[in-house]
Structure formats: structure tokens, C-alpha cells
Amino acid sequence: MAVYTKISQSDLESLLVQYDIGKLKTFSGIAAGIQNSNFILDTENNRYVLTIYEHSVNEKDLPFFLDLMGHFSSKGIPCPTPIKNNSGLNISHIKDKPCAIVSFVKGFEVTNASLPYIEELGRNIAKMHLAGADFPLKRANEIGLEGWRKKFDSVKDRAEEISPGLKDEISQVREWLNSQWPKNLPSGVIHGDIFPDNVLFASDGKIAGIIDFYFACDDIFMYDLAICINAWCFDTPAANKWEFNKSKANALVSSYNSVRKISGGEFQALPLLATGAAMRFLLTRMHAKMYPVNDALVHTKNPLEYLYKLRFHKEITSYREYGIEIIHENN
Predict the structure, then answer these.
(1) pLDDT tens for residues 192-220?
(2) Domains in the chain, start-ordered, CATH in brackets?
(3) Which residues contact 238 (CB under 8 A, 6 or more apart)?
């Protein structure tokens, strides 16, 4: 989430005429995230989130994202519910840009999460993967191997600004990932961006809502879990220091496995998939740092974090080195 498009009260009042959610009382921008413009709306009826989709989101993908949230919500997966306008559509327009309004999820973010939060996360990711089995729409991962190439092409000539020798290092790792990337692992709808700021917890420790589905796509389930390992299983005791926490990795994967059984092939591919996940976020963070949007309310994240994680995963040769204690008869 972020704010790139500036809007006024009159802009919002004109938009809300198209909805049956009450008159606008107050609104405020949300600075977290990097992709779309987001606002909290308080109306006479309730609190909502307005998302304005920027140039990085193709309008043709919006039915996938919004219908997916509605599908998951109907299946009991905690996530926002899209609000239809008076024409029965999930999508409207404001300032000549597509937008959507979804229900507000009340909860809090957890950083450096303890094991009970990690276990709750793992179970819910597995439930989400299973719940997507009958979702009818399909969407390719636009930030997969080919997407990494495009991002790399946009930043490679300035890679030395991040770290000496980084251009050659990324080139070598990308070549390795391209040659080894698995093609036949269990796949389906994934979230693709389950970071701590996209998961809100309730006071009882349960997940109140998984939010921000705008990287959702069809891809390898274990890749989604690898993204979570990167995002949730490294502790940050000091600035620019990231220490892998084996207990968290074991808790995340074990709790996931208690709901959806992980195959031996998925386990074997985990170091490769985790390296790929680190590559993705290294490149997207480099791009955001090198090409900031002027006068936008957005927090730019540190690409060095994912350079460290990339190097860490590249040295792992077995999933057991992550501290994962699960033993399968087919492993």
C-alpha cells in the first residue's frame, strides 16, 4: 500500500454516490507498501479501504484480484471483502484510474513474530492454497523468471550503487535459477506477497485478515511459502543485520504441513525457491530505490536485506539446514 494519486473530499464524495455505504466522514492515506494508492475511508456506515490502481497494475487483472478476495472470503479465509457499486461491479473509477473499495480489516501487524503467530500463519496459508482449488480464473506470475529479467534490465547499469560487483552476482544467480527452476511441483493460486505488513492479527492471536492480493497469481505453492520464510523467519536484532531463525522456519513449515501435506519434491526444491523469492524482492526493491515516484507517500524498503538473504539461501543445500524437522516417507 502507498499513496501516489492525491484525491480530495469532493473526489471521494462523487465516487461514493455510486455505492450504498453511507456518506463520507473522514479519509486518510496509507503510506505502507509500494504498488497502489490506498486510503482509509470512514463513512456513516462503517470503515473501508479504497485502492486506486496505478500504472503498475493492469486493469485487466483486477477481476482476478477482486474476485479472488471474494472467493476466499466466502470460503472462510480471513481477508477483505470487495464492496460492489450500485451497478453490481467491484471496479469503479476515480481521477481516470480504476479503483475498488473493500471492507476494512481491524487488526495489528506483528514484526519479529513469536512462534504462535508463525504457526497461525502457516495454517492459514495452507488453507488459502486449498481454498483456491475451485477458483475459476487464472493469472500467470508476472514477477516470475521473465519478470526478474525485465527488472534486472532496468537496474543492472546502476547495481554497483547498491553493492560492488552486484551486477555480475545477480547475473550468475539468475542463470542458475533459470536452469534449475522446477516445473512440476504442486501449484495453484498463491498470494505472492505475504509479508508482516500484509497480515493483521486479532487480540486472540488469530489472523484477522490477509490483505493486499495484488501480486496474487497461479504458481508453485512452495514458492509462496518460500516468500514467507524470507519475510518472517529472519530476526533483525540490529540495523542491517538479519539472522535466520530455524525455530520459526520449522514452525511455519510444520504448521502448513499439518493442513496441506508437503511432498518430498517440494521439500527438496525449497532452497532453490527461497533463493528465487529473495531474488524477486532484491530486484523490486532495487527498482523502487532507483526510480522513486516524486511527491508520493510511500516507504522505500532496503534492498540490502534481500541481498543478504539471497546469499544465505544460495549456500543452503538441503531443506533440513533450515531447521525443518518434518520427516516424510517419500523424502
Answers:
(1) 999 999 999 999 999 999 999 999 999 99
(2) 9-103 (3.30.200.20), 115-322 (3.90.1200.10)
(3) none
In residues, how long is the chain? Answer: 331
pLDDT 10s digits, 133-158: 999 999 999 999 999 999 999 999 99
Cell readout for 10 is 469532493
